[in-house]
Structure formats: C-alpha cells, structure tokens
Amino acid sequence: MSAKHVLALSGGVGGAKLAAGLAAVLPPEDLTIVVNTGDDFEHLGLTICPDIDSVTYALAGLNDTQRGWGVKDETWQAMAMLKALGEADWFNLGDRDMGMHIARSWRMREGESLSAVTARLTRELGIAHAIVPMSDAPLRTQVGTAEGWLDFQRYFVAEQCRPVATGIRFAGKAGAKPSAEFARALARDDLGAIVVCPSNPYLSVDPILAVEGVRAALEARKVPLIAVSPLVGGTALKGPLAKLLGELGQPVSNRAIADHYGDLLDHLIIDEADAADAGDLRGTGLSVTVTGTVMCDAGDRERLARVALSAARIETG
After folding, report:
1. CA 51/CA 245 separation, integer angstroms
2. Of the candidates 110, 195, 216, 244, which lies 20 to 30 Å from 26 by C-alpha distance?
3. Could you tell me if 307 and 267 are in contact, meaning their C-beta atoms sit under 8 angstroms apart?
C-alpha cells in the first residue's frame, strides 16, 4: 500500500483556504481535514462551530472572500430582529449562516454527535472530502487576561482581542478523545503526510494537539509533518497572532513559529517576503521552502497546496 493519504490540521479563515486548495488537488479518499473545535460555543441556544463552518463554506464555494468569514451574499434580518427584541448582538450571525447553526443544533439535541452532524451537513452541501472535528467532546480555548479567563469568542469577538493575553488554556471534558475519523486518519497504514494549515499555532492548532493522545501520536509518526507559517512579512495577515506572540514574550517571527512546534515539525513553508528567515531556520536542521503563501483566489490555494504536498513527496494529479 502506497503512503499517500494526507491528514490536514486546520483552524478557520487562513487554514480553510489551504484546506480548500488541498481538496482541489487531492481526491476525497486521499484527504482528511481535521478542524479545531476549541472556538465552539453555545450562543442564543445554538451550537456555533466557527472553524468547521469556515472550512465547510470554503470547500462548498460559499465563503465570503471579501469579509473573510461567513457566507457570501449574506443578509442580516434575523439578527436585526433579535437585536430589536433585546437579545445579544455581539456575535453577528447572518441569515444563511444561522441556517447552518440551526441544522447542527437540533440534530445534536436529537442525539447525533458533532462528527455525524458535520458529515451530514457537508454531504448535503456537495462536499465529498472528509471534514471532521478534532473531538466530539468539548475542549474550549480560553485566554488569560488581567480580568481573568475569557472564553475564546468573548476575547476574540466581543473584546476584539484588546485585553493583554497572559496565557492560554483548554477547558472542558477531561480526557477529550479524538473523533473517530481523526483517530482513524492518525492510524492509517497509507498515511503519507500531515499538513498543518496556516492557522494560529496557539489558538487553532494547539487545541488539536491538546486532544488526548494526539501529540503522542504525532511524536510517534513515521511520516513528515509540514506546516505553512501564518506569518507574512513578519506579521499576521488576520487575527491576533502577532499581538499574542508579543504578549506571551515571543518574537513575531517564523523562528518563533518553528520553535513552538518544536520536534513535531519537519518542514516549514514561509512566505517569500520572509525569505531572509530561511537561513536561520535551516541552521536548526529544519527543512524550509520559500514561496508565496498569500491565497487570494483558487489558483493561489491550489498552488500552495501543491507546494506543501511536494515538500511531503505526495504526488498530485
């Protein structure tokens, strides 16, 4: 059996772009996309899974590329009515997006797992590739601040990342295990590579690594692990990564990204704007590819996916 299956680990917006690129160049049987659920939360009686939805919308061609999140051609009538009724409006839900949350929430209340619901919804949207949650058990990201621990969405959306971060932890069910599809992907005989999409290492990838047994499985792997750096030109295109690194006492650099992943990382792909970082990174024994990592359209996504797969010696059609 040839080792050709690819396991992708992804957060939201940036990760979703590369996940879509990988899905465009790999057949469904050769790709499993495992998505961070540390951002998930309950809001207005609905189960919200922002990163799963970002990946789903990207693969379904429904994502709003201008806004960077949510569904394209969105309307906001339900949210306007909720606000008029005095309900919380700090987390904005579009009408089409709310349909996703309603479908997920009532199915889960009927007893379906997050994995089963995700498989159902992605299938209904015509997605053939496997998009799976990191775990069916809750494992929620919290950010430490001077005012105490904030749930991720409260920190990220309501507070707009303004509080100074003093730490990060993952709260929830003790011993949260990988979802069944995630566990199967890790154990596949034909696993050929693991690709870490350009997501925030602390807020999007670390929750996946915090799932019981995942870090140990990656440490014991016999295939390359390739990460695409989320930094471009010494900063993050979106999100709080640069601010977070500084507040946690780390330089805003590709070296900090590489050091954070440590021995898990075999190969780092960095943007051409950061080409000067390559020598230092290679001096640590790390393999490095310098290329354009900004993904503005489908062509960019597919090209970067092929670069990542080439680094792993995975052939594409």
Report:
1. 21
2. 216
3. no
Q: Which residue has the tokens 């996916």?
A: 305
Q: Which fold has domain 5-311?
A: Rossmann fold (3.40.50)
Tokens representing 4 are: 């050709």
Sequence-distant (6+) residues with CB within 8 A of 109 are none
β-bridge mates for residue 151, sequence order: 142
pTM of the model: 0.96
* Domain ranges, ordered by start, for the chain: 5-311
Neighbours of 284 (CB within 10 A): 12
Average pLDDT of the chain, as a whole number: 94
Using CA atoms, how far residue 241 sits from 126, 254, 257, in Å, is 33, 12, 10
Distance CA 184, CA 196 (A): 18
Looking at residue 212, what DSSP letter applies? T
Query: Is 192's pLDDT higher than 90?
Result: yes
Within 8 A by CB and 6+ apart from 195, the residues are 6, 7, 8, 9, 18, 22, 225, 226, 227, 228, 308, 309, 312
Instruction: For residue 174, give every residue at least 6 positions away whose Cβ sits within 8 Å of its Cβ, in sequence order, or none.
Output: none
Residue 267: HSE in the Cβ half-sphere, 13 Å Cα cutoff:
18
How far apart CA 125 and CA 137 sit, in angstroms, is 24
* Helices (H), ranges, 29-76: 50-60
Cβ atoms of residues 223 and 3 within 8 Å: yes
Query: And the tokens for 98?
Result: 């709310």
pLDDT at position 317, please?
Answer: 67
